[in-house]
Design a protein that fits this description.
By secondary structure, this protein is an alpha/beta fold. It has a single domain, classed as Rossmann fold (3-Layer(aba) Sandwich), CATH 3.40.50.1820. It is built from 12 helices and 9 strands. The strands form 2 sheets. A 6-stranded parallel sheet has the order 2-1-3-4-8-9, with helices on both faces. The chain has a 3-stranded antiparallel sheet with strand order 5-6-7. Strand 8, helix 10 and strand 9 form a beta-alpha-beta unit. Helix 2 packs across helix 12 and helix 3 packs across helix 4.
């Protein structure tokens, strides 16, 4: 089934007419580091990664442990420290919190948020989520007896991945990566967007992170905003548009 997910993501990029590039880019940032959100793993970035690799970028997807904010930040910094030169740091959903912290790394030249939280110092996902009505995705979050969170598999496909094929949504729902609830409770200690230029991909049909909340974050961090008519999984369903925003961040001077 994992092959099914990967082939579907590759097929979506092929249908969008992505052509391989023959030369390495000569841009301010040649490195891209992609950070995944809660409930999924680094393969959620495969479609975007393949587009950028075809254009000659050096792309690395972080494998977050999803055990705490501090440990996700540590995993991201480990990857950042291995980069050679300026790097665009990209985060989806929960990973917006992670890149806000790890974005302080000297290697990071720009931040890209994709349907992501962008807390200021002292804010947590839990606190921010209480500021508005719960979305269908948030309402479906469940905790196990160890405090790890997942989304109800019956709700996941429509709430998280409504614009992906149903079999892909079911696959993702059945193979979720639980996140420790303490990660959502942890307040941000750093907000790198105060000092680093930022871009934001806003998903207008998101049923997990409300689009109004996304607009609030994007405006507050003074990001360059691109809106896609996508679900919370727009990094997969709108891989071409997301990759284009990342490339714009890499080209910025």
């Amino acid at each position: 089934m994992k092959a099914l997910l990967l082939s579907a993501l590759m097929m979506s990029t092929a249908m969008l007419g992505i052509a391989p590039a023959s030369a390495q880019p000569s841009h301010p940032a040649k490195n891209i580091v992609l950070v995944h959100g809660a409930f999924v793993d680094e393969t959620s970035w495969n479609g975007v990664a393949e587009i950028l690799k075809a254009k000659g970028y050096h792309v690395t997807a972080v494998k977050n442990p999803l055990t705490s904010l501090a440990e996700d930040v540590a995993a991201t910094n480990k990857v950042l420290n291995a980069q050679d030169g300026p790097t665009v740091l990209v985060g989806h959903s929960w990973a917006g919190v992670v890149i806000g912290e790890a974005g302080n790394n000297a290697k990071v030249s720009a931040l890209v948020y994709v349907s992501a939280f962008a807390p200021d110092k002292g804010e947590s996902v839990t606190a921010l989520s209480k500021s508005g009505p719960a979305t269908p995705g948030v309402k479906a979050i469940r905790a196990d007896n160890k405090g790890y969170l997942t989304i109800d598999p019956a709700v996941f496909p429509s709430a998280v991945a409504g614009d992906l094929p149903k079999d892909i949504g079911a696959y993702l729902a059945a193979r979720q990566m639980p996140i420790n609830h303490t990660a959502f409770d942890a307040p941000a200690e750093v907000a790198a967007w105060h000092d680093k230029p930022s871009w934001y991909v806003l998903s207008s049909k998101d049923l997990v992170l409300d689009p109004h909340a996304q607009a609030f974050f994007a405006d507050r961090i003074k990001a360059k905003i691109t809106t896609v008519e996508g679900s919370h999984a727009s990094l997969a369903s709108h891989a071409k548009e997301v990759a284009a925003v990342i490339e714009a961040a890499a080209n910025a001077k």
